Amino acid sequence: MRESPRLHWLPARPEDWRARLKAVAGAPADAEAWAELVRLARHDLDFAATNALAGVMGRLFPAGDPPSATTRPERLAVMSSSTTTHLLPSLVVGALRRGIPLVAHENDYGLYRNELIEADGPLAAFRPTSVLFALDARHLTRAAADCRTAAETEAALERTLDDLAGLWRRARERFGAKVLQQTPVACLPATAGSNEHRNPASAAAFAARLAARLRERADAEGVDLVAVDERIGRDGLAAWHDPAFWFKAKQEIALPAAPMWGDLVARVLAARQGCVGKCLVLDLDNTLWGGVVGDEGPLGVVIGEGSTLGEAFLSIQAYAADLRRRGILLAVCSKNDDAVARAVFRDNPDMLLKESDVSCFIADWTDKATNLREIARRLNIAVDSLVFLDDNPFERGLVRRELPSVFVPELPDAPEGYVTALADSGCFEAVALTEEDFARASYYRADRPSLDVAVEATDLDAHLAELDMVMSWGRVDEGTLTRTAQLINKTNQFNLTTRRHGEDEVRAMVADPDTLALWFRLADRYGDNGLIAVVIARRDALESETFEIDTWLMSCRVLGRRVEQATLEALIAATRAAGGRRLIGVYRPTAKNGMVRDHYARLGFETIADGDDEVRGRLELDRFVSASPPIDIREVVR
To answer: 19-48 as b/e, with b when 16 or more CB fall inside 10 Å?
Structure first.
């Protein structure tokens, strides 16, 4: 009997799930209906439940534009050589699970090339924001049939990769869409056994080589992969592919695997929007070590080599350390006495994680939902950026109920499975990693004085002056483009318009002489804060001396330091150098950026329009008076 891939990191579907779905199906298409659909999606759903939920979503919001979504809607085109109709509902639900409204389109059977070319075809009418190439393994390996030598196989492989790259470029150039590529499904039979790779004509070996080379080519072309081959390697081919349904309906991916497939695709789309975890919050007792430290003492808890449980808990710490090295923040949220909890980090020699690895440490007897809010506040990140790991089902349920935007993976009874649950969930999915990402955790060190001293300082100006702040800024270029696009697509709170621009769009802006695309870094006496702000301004087509600010976003970790004024001074210098004499600032409200509604007014812009959907301000540069922020502002010219 085939075992279906399960979304095992999500809680089981509750008994009233169907009743709740039926109730929301008859409700008005409003914000509460959307929120309930998102809640219903965040369970371990099988194929039938996934289809039912997607059906209600499609009836309530057929255009994929619910009134309260804080994410960018996605219009995803699936370009395939096989049957994918049965997979589309899982895309809707996978995106819904992450708060992203999505509508999907598939090409007529086998006609993906036609739709990419046709000027007035169905794909052009659909206007995709993203395009996924999900080509079946038999289609991808057709060229292997004519190969008789290793050289012929290599040439065929290169032609196949060139052909795929051409498809990617066409999709990007025609629609300005993000491009995703599914890796080949390893469903082709071997003809030579363990040394199949030595058979030049082997389709199975060709597919394996293609999967490896595809990763390099995708990186070079800026294409995101959906790695179904890696997932199949964990679940087993039989859970994903049924030869009977391939021959009956040309379904390469079996129906029971659809929910997992849709989740894999959706998490890549979510990563592009920044809808991923930024901070792993860890419980301590029986999550990070075995036993209760208050009973066992700091040296009596179970951790380290020599026992099954000790090594299991050590593997959790090792995985958390790996996440921190790639830029994920770590925090502690434990019901414990603070001194007792910290003693394990300080005194137990088997602890892999150290107190200095933790950006925010809260151990007290307050409920965990309240403390999670406090962690987000202290770190200046959104609550929905938190991922909470706790062995206690009660605590997991409490947080899910009180803070539904926090991702809480379901954990098995045994700690040996904790890392698998966390890793399989995709909550820290990444599509691009930069030097800034690897350094991010050090920016949020809990013991970094510059984060908290300002709150206690009686003379703020004197304190800021003592920080020896230096803000460097310059034009976005290839060296800063990836990180700039990341910030644009991830920043929600200090983001004046929340307009999302992908790397290709930013690259086009950089090349446009009428657009100012600027990056900003901040360093102080305690270290480098990294890239902390992005501003993009465009010259008005009718008034050449006017520049409108399309994007202004900033990391919340530098708020309260007069960085906004310093950023404006740099923007004014760039605008003047480009022949500009005035700036137009635009604020577009979202559910998360209310903190910056008065941003332009505070900087001296005259309000010229104040509506519910948009606030506009104007600054005449010849009337601007510097606020003299205590920051050394330096332009970097490359």
So the answer is: eebeebbeeeeeeebbbbbbbbbbbebebe
